[in-house]
Amino acid sequence: MIFIVKSATHHMQARDVIRETWGSIEFLRGTRFATLFLLGRTSTSEEQFLLNRENEMFGDLLQCDLLDEYKALPLKVLSSFRWLLEGHMTSSYYTVTDDDCVMNLMNINTFFHVERYDDVIYCGFIFDQDSKVNRQRKSKWYISKDVYSGLYYPTFCHGGMWSLQKPMMRDVYCMAEVTQRNEFYLEDVYITGILREKLGRRDSNILPATTNSGSKYLLMYYPWDETNRAYIKMTAKWRKLNRTLPWGINSSSGEPLVGSYKPQTLHTKQNVKLLLLQWSHLKDAETNRTK
Known about the structure:
alpha/beta, Spore Coat Polysaccharide Biosynthesis Protein SpsA, Chain A, 7-stranded mixed beta sheet, 3-stranded antiparallel beta sheet, 17% strand, transmembrane helix, transferase, glycosyltransferase activity, EC 2.4.1.-
């Protein structure tokens, strides 16, 4: 599984917390994990220098040629889809999350060994049905009638965590190429709701990832805190989850059940530059798309 972590250029502390917690586990009972931090363009050369140095150290930054701001999230996520679809890294599943979330790797490993439908988007966070469009102008999630005229959104996964396989990723990306986004900036609604529905995928193609008992947030943890205390909560939660991991040796193969694995394809500055050029072309063409 590849985790696509939506981050911001100045969120190095958040990225470090992930690298030191759940992002440090790169295989578990035969399942390999890799983490990409998704960024936009910096506003200063000094900040870009720091990102280049960070990427040289960790090789896990994926940067697209869009100013790093909240309203760029749909294009940021879609740019990562394009990069992955071109074969830079392959995986059975791709999971989109935020840099203030903790992945429950044990439950993720168990869940996706059972649930393996290639035409389904799985919601690891809030599964939202019949969500009313926010018309409050001062709200972070305000959407005007000019941008989206409907009263309700299609069923969608909130951005904390959602997972899909490559066939669905490819279809969503191709639909985005021929869809006029009209400045709609809620990437979770746009990708898992609007584009999915436009593809003809029904509500049966988007499902909550829960236990049989209906327990919420089986696969992830969100601290519900926008202060720096969120990082303390994330670390504390990971310590609890870490104790549930099978730290031992496979009796038949002699290999460790949990450990660190580095993918052969790191996300070097050369790959980052390639992404910048490719997505710039698509960004320029967006205004010519029609519904």
